[in-house]
Design a protein that fits this description.
Elements (H helix, E strand, L loop, with lengths): L2 E5 L22 E5 L25 E9 L6 E10 L7 E3 L2 E2 L2 E7 L1 E11 L4 E12 L2 E7 L5 E5 L20 E12 L3 E10 L6 E4 L6 E11 L2 E8 L6 E2 L6 E5 L6 H8 L8 E8 L2 E9 L9 E5 L8 E6 L12 E2 L3 E4 L2 E4 L41 E7 L9 E7 L5 E2 L12 H6 L5 E7 L2 E4 L2 H4 L11 E12 L3 E11 L6 E11 L2 E2 L2 E2 L5 E14 L2 E5 L3 E8 L6 E3 L2 E2 L11 E6 L10 E10 L5 E12 L17 E5 L4 E6 L11 E6 L2 E6 L1
Parallel strand pairs: 2-13, 3-10, 9-14, 11-17, 16-21, 35-43
Antiparallel strand pairs: 1-37, 3-7, 4-5, 4-8, 6-7, 8-9, 11-14, 12-13, 12-15, 15-16, 18-21, 19-20, 19-22, 23-28, 24-25, 26-27, 29-30, 29-31, 31-32, 32-43, 33-34, 33-36, 36-37, 36-41, 38-39, 38-42, 40-41, 42-43, 44-45, 44-46, 46-47
Length: 688
């Protein structure tokens, strides 16, 4: 039985500006945030790293730094840092302001000084460096922003080759907001400063320094909310160049198709454009995850089901974005459907293999993301993939309002067939709407009951998040039915689940993902089942302290199928696949063949029932109804490819893609009807 501990990360979502939490570098980086205007600004106290074990006995010195700024340019000093120049002694201090100077007591030694200056019009970032400063006794240093004569311009080219423009005071342009994150990297100690500014009228276009530092590099990470979709840029700064930033080459993009849920369709029908949308992303530095954050629009509609990414050719990838695609529905807090995060690879943007269920709280281990995601969930999505177009799997995790001790509670989320997170069905989306607003969109479209030792302590989804008192019981039971699913816009789906767990054991059993595959490719419609499989991951988790889980494998996992709507379940023998075991975020991997599923009738939906057992009588059981479909291949042979052509695209008469790039022998999913077949640039109608 495998057992380990995984560290999680808190979710930070701000409407207008991203907020970064500290990474787990050897030296804790200083985090500086600002956002102008009326948007929410979060300010955390600046932190300095703890010195080494011998520091208590080391001689100390008084360091005072005077900074001359240009008041006419509305400049302000954001940080004054002292970083050890000794690569064997990783220590950093942030000097507090005292009157008009910055002063503090530090270990005697040799330091590099860094002064971070910004102007309130957000146009310029200035960093002043004083290198190899010997600090002993009482040391005074003066720096002047006037000496920052080495400057470069950060270009703002869009993927289409036009300049990315923010709105002015006179109106709107092709962007609504930009987020600029400056990374100060030390060759030996890693990231020391993350300085973030959200802009709404002017871009931060200039970066200036007084010297090109020996032991530091600067990287700008820019996000633009463009009217064609969010744009992510990673820009290492070379001060020998007058301009840094994207070129016409090297752009990558990715899109996803999202199905509407009944709730999201009802909500959109009552909204007036432009809707408020938000995109999300991880910020990653040297494989360390800093935060999962969001940046939204500014009275300006933009698509979030596609995004664009640029980094220079040959870039080593030390700083990365892991962006997610969304279905544009974000007006109700965490009400969107979010794709699995993407990451840049040598083959372009690919799903990262990270599980976002539970706000991404499963994915950190020892303070950082895994070097690569789960390989079974990192392949490009099929061309016909539609996110949220299937009944999702329920994921339950222990949760506590106490950072040090589990208070017997749990949270729940739903994850789809392609790793998408259905936040619209999660515990997060509870009492954000009024009773009247809920009624207009069909209520929560789920029922929920939680009992402690047989006594109900929660009877509806809205009550789940209102400071629920979990108490001290011997056994907890949850019953929930989620019906906010509409497959292909016509087939209603639901997930009916139960959860039982004992605080004495402390572990909650749960599914963490579920997929069906045809010849290894994710699918849920099959014309034959010989090569079809059910693939799932499951685990038991316990709360081990703030931002930490412990994990162990389930005691048993059982999979069953039945004709849709019936109770005639038959077991699908599951086999554990040890080579696909993966933490964090997934757990033990199981596979079952669908080869034994009967074909007593064609064009038929089937349900799945999955049971995950833990210890002390704990169990999670969920029925996904419907889960997969067997379809008749009749009529496929009537489609003939044009002479010399081996691939074709097939559309329904209303223009919906049915199959893309398939050969005549591989066309499998067609029911009787009328189709448009496109081959060699020519289209023809086919009646089956």
């Amino acid at each position: 039985m495998k057992k380990t501990k995984i560290q999680t990360i808190a979710l930070a979502l701000l409407a207008c500006a991203a907020t970064l939490s500290a990474s787990a570098s050897e030296i804790t980086p200083v985090i500086q945030k600002s956002a102008p205007g009326d948007c929410l600004v979060t300010s955390f106290p600046m932190r300095a790293a703890q010195s080494g074990p011998a520091a208590a006995e080391a001689a100390t010195a008084q360091l005072t730094v005077s900074v001359v700024i240009d008041n006419d340019r509305n400049q302000e000093v954001a940080n004054v840092l002292a970083i050890s120049a000794n690569p064997q002694h990783s220590v950093m201090y942030e000097l507090p302001k005292s009157g008009n100077v910055y002063t503090g007591t530090i270990e005697a030694g040799v330091y590099d000084l860094v002064v971070n200056i910004k102007s309130d019009n957000e146009d310029t970032q200035i960093l002043l460096f004083e290198e190899d400063v010997e600090v002993s006794g009482t040391k005074r240093v003066m720096v002047n922003q006037r000496n920052a004569t080495i400057s470069t311009v950060i270009d703002r080219m869009s993927p289409s080759g036009i300049e990315l423009m923010l709105p002015s005071t006179d109106g709107y342009s092709n962007c609504s907001v930009a987020d600029h994150i400056m990374m100060l990297h030390h060759n030996d100690f890693g990231t020391l400063l993350q300085d973030e500014v959200a802009s709404f009228c002017r871009c931060c276009t200039h970066v200036s320094v007084n010297v090109i530092p020996q032991r530091f590099t600067l990287t700008r990470m820019d996000i633009y909310v463009w009217n064609q979709g969010p744009v992510f840029m990673v820009i290492p700064i070379d001060f020998t160049k007058e301009h840094n930033g994207p070129t016409a080459d090297g752009w990558h993009s990715v899109t996803a198709t999202f199905a509407e849920t009944p709730m999201s369709a009802a909500w959109r029908a009552r909204q007036e454009p432009p809707q408020f949308n938000m995109t999300g992303f991880f910020v990653v530095a040297g494989k360390h995850c800093n935060a999962y954050v969001g940046v939204g629009n500014y009275n300006h509609e933009f698509p979030t089901d596609r995004m664009y990414y640029w980094a220079p050719e040959g870039y080593d990838g030390y700083y990365e974005y892991y962006p997610v695609l969304r279905d544009n529905l974000i007006e109700m807090a965490d009400a969107s459907v979010s794709s699995m995060p993407y990451r840049m690879t040598e083959a372009g943007l690919r799903p990262s293999g990270l599980n976002l269920a539970g706000d991404g709280n499963l994915m950190l281990y020892d303070g950082k993301l895994p070097d690569s995601g789960h390989p079974c969930y990192s392949d490009p999505l099929p061309d016909d993939a539609i996110l949220a177009n299937a009944v999702p799997a329920l994921v339950c995790l222990p949760s506590s309002t106490n950072n040090l001790k589990w208070d017997n509670g749990f949270i729940y989320d739903f994850t789809g067939r392609y790793g998408e997170k259905l936040g619209i069905n999660s515990f997060n989306f509870t009492d954000i709407l009024t009773v009247n607003e809920l009624a207009q969109i069909g209520d929560y479209r789920r029922t929920l009951s939680v009992k402690r030792d047989g006594t109900e302590i929660c009877s509806w989804p809205g009550g789940f998040a209102r400071g629920l008192d979990w108490g001290n019981g011997d056994m907890y039971n949850m019953e929930m039915t989620m019906s906010n699913v509409l497959i292909d816009g016509e087939t209603e789906g639901f997930n009916s689940a139960t959860l039982t767990y004992s605080p004495a054991d402390g572990y909650i059993p749960t599914l963490t993902s579920l997929q069906l595959r045809d010849n290894g490719i994710a699918a849920d419609r099959f014309t034959e089942c010989a090569d079809a499989t059910l693939e799932l991951t499951a685990a038991t988790f316990s709360f081990a302290g703030y931002m930490n889980f412990s994990f162990k494998a389930p005691s048993a996992v059982k999979a069953e199928y039945a004709p849709h709507g019936s109770d005639e379940f038959s077991e699908l023998p599951l086999n554990e696949v040890p080579e696909n075991f993966y933490l964090p975020g997934y757990g033990t991997y199981y596979r079952a063949s669908l080869g034994g599923v009967g074909r007593e009738s064609a064009d038929k939906w089937y349900d799945l029932r999955i049971t995950v057992n833990g210890a002390e009588g704990s169990a999670q059981t969920q029925v996904l109804s419907p889960a997969f479909r067997l379809e008749s291949p009749s009529g496929v042979g009537n489609i003939e490819t044009a002479a010399g052509e081996s691939r074709c695209d097939i559309y329904s008469v209303d223009g919906r893609i049915v199959a893309r790039g398939v050969s005549n022998s591989a066309v499998q999913r067609l029911e009787s009807g009328i189709y448009i077949v496109v081959e060699g640039g020519k289209a023809r109608k086919v009646i089956l």
